[in-house]
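Project standup — Tuesday

K.O.: blocked on the structure for the chain from last sprint. Re-posting the sequence here as requested.
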Amino acid sequence: MGPGNWPDVLIGMFLNEPLLAAVLAVVVSRATYAYFAAKGGALRHQDVPLPATAAVAAAVPVGLAVVIGAFNGLAWGLLTGVIAYLLRVAVMVDYTTGRRVHATGLRNGRRAEPPPQRAADVIWITGLLLGGVVLPVMALLAALDGRAWTSVETCNVNTGQGAHRARLIELERQGDGIVGWDVAASEVVSGINCAADENETIRPAWWHDA
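H.V.: unblocked you, prediction finished:
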């Protein structure tokens, strides 16, 4: 695939798999916040008023909500933003209650006592499950469901046996056509006079063949 085609693949993923896109956004939001907090962010903001810290923590979830909402609708955007922010708040609660060491970001093993700490533990476990179990499983299922994450087009193709129309998965734009994977012939070919094919299914899902 050409580098210019990679954004199309990402856009296709967001359009075709809204749940996968939402989970990915939530996991990235939580992981980056926890990482930078552990690398000194929490220590630098130790004396910053909590409302200010909470407001700063909302910036990335709001941005992700806008992106997800633009691709998949308002409901998906709101859901993504709220969950991403809750996961960040759980990290914040751990630091403000002394259950994470500001200098290292490690949990100190102190038992959760007040309800906010117990809630933070539940959200923390939820974040681990999303990143360690849900996201990999969803990504694997999406990769094997028989749909393309990039454009599928019907083009004129000539491999030496006469011109014919064929369905191609676009790999790269080239000249007045595309280079693509011929779904029927299982080979890379050049195509011209292409038209978008709305059917993104390229083969039966693998679990249907089992």
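K.O.: great, moving the ticket to review. The chain has a mean pLDDT of 85. DSSP finds seven helices and four strands in the chain.
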